[in-house]
Amino acid sequence: MNPKSAIKGRGAQQNTPNRFFELSHEVRNDFLEYCHKEGEKADKNKTLYLPVFPKTIVNKVQSPDVGMAYSMNMYQGCEHGCIYCYARNTHEYWGYSAGLDFERRILVKKDAAKLLEAHLKKKSWKAQTIVMSGNTDCYQPAEKEFEITRQCLQVFLKYKHPVGIITKNALILRDLEVLKALAKDNLVTVNISITSQFEDTRRILEPRTASIKKRLVTVKVLSENNIPVNVMLAPIIPGINNHEILPLAKLVAEHGAQSISHTIVRLNGAIGDIFTDWIYKTMPDKAEKVLHQIADCHGGSLNDSRFGNRMRGEGKIAEQINNLIALAKRKYFANKKMPNLNTTLFEQHKNGQLKLF
Q1: Half-sphere exposure of residue 185, counting CA atoms within 13 Å on the CB side?
Q2: Would you say residue 138 lies in a domain?
Q3: DSSP of 127-191
Q4: Range of the domain at 157
Q5: Distances in Å between the alpha carbon of 267 and those of 59, 305, 308, 326?
Q6: Is 162 among the domain residues?
Q7: pLDDT digits (tens), the chain, 357 positions
Q8: CATH code where residue 239 lies
């Protein structure tokens, strides 16, 4: 991609049409020419934080592939801009594009902590791990300003309720003291996503995420403070980072990770067009090879929605990737595993009194 023509600091380089809208927005060449002559910018490339007011915050997860029963998201959209992100499609339900809008129109749920507390206090609710960031990263840049994730962690601590966290941002260390308090009663696990060990790869795949060095330090600091860390080598993208599986697994093990997990990239919905546009602009020499290898993992298609297959893929390339992950687990994580979180303390903290029976 020509650096002068690239949209700086963004993954997607376009706004794909919203599948729910009859009309679409197009930036015409004559408009671009007018802006050039007038010395104006056609696109200011600013991030907007837009408040939204949902009635609930905890979601029941229907997919059998993702290893969680309940999730919650403080933000919709994500400024990290990861080009492969499966969550991009959800932005269309809010009336936006899965492309640039997903990275620049961030919906902020300021009442998340109140909604969480109301959910936990329901008479029918029994303690089960709730995962923060089942969809978008709870420690994305917006969290610096709004601190909603921190407020929610304090609610989990107050009620002694188990919580899982998924992030690729070192900002999580800001809340180290709260995490240590949760870990003392075995109430928290953290999943750190690390897709590559090389900054050049990270910058183009995940433009506004924490550096690889910072993420490795995060794994180390959390582990040293007895906070269990799983590293997600996800997604594995054939032709881009599949050759890194063993060295990356070794690296995160040396920094204290207790386990690793992975997925093979799938380009569902609008992400297929967004990723294809991006890779022809950023890696034109690799584009055909990468796209063909991704398709090879999903029965000849970039997309795969089949439960049981969509995360692990099929075919020879997928088999090689899955075998490398299995080897990495045996080699670097033998006799290690993430703990089952404690669900026994919640009831007595839910209403402030112990049960007799």
Answers
A1: 17
A2: yes
A3: ---EEETSSS-TTSTHHHHH-HHHHHHHHHHHTT--EEEEE--GGGGGGHHHHHHHHHTT-EEEE
A4: 48-261
A5: 23, 10, 16, 24
A6: yes
A7: 444 456 778 988 888 878 776 666 666 666 556 666 667 665 677 899 999 999 999 999 988 777 799 999 999 999 999 999 999 999 999 999 999 999 999 999 999 999 999 999 999 999 999 999 988 999 999 999 999 999 999 999 999 999 999 999 999 999 999 999 999 999 999 999 999 999 999 999 999 999 999 999 999 999 999 999 999 999 999 999 999 999 999 999 999 999 999 999 999 999 999 999 999 999 999 999 999 999 999 999 998 877 767 788 999 999 999 999 999 999 999 999 999 999 999 999 987 654 544
A8: 3.20.20.70
Chain centroid to Cα 128, Å, comes to 21
Q: Which residue has the tokens 């003291």?
A: 177
310 lies in some domain: no
CA pair distance 204, 9, nearest whole angstrom: 9
Find, among 270, 278, 267, the residue nearest to 21 by Cα.
270
Does some domain include residue 127?
Answer: yes
CA dist., res. 165 & res. 171, Å (int): 12
Count of structural domains, the chain: 1
CB 57 within 8 A of CB 109: yes
Cβ neighbours for 171, distance < 8 A, ≥ 6 positions apart: 139, 143, 144, 210
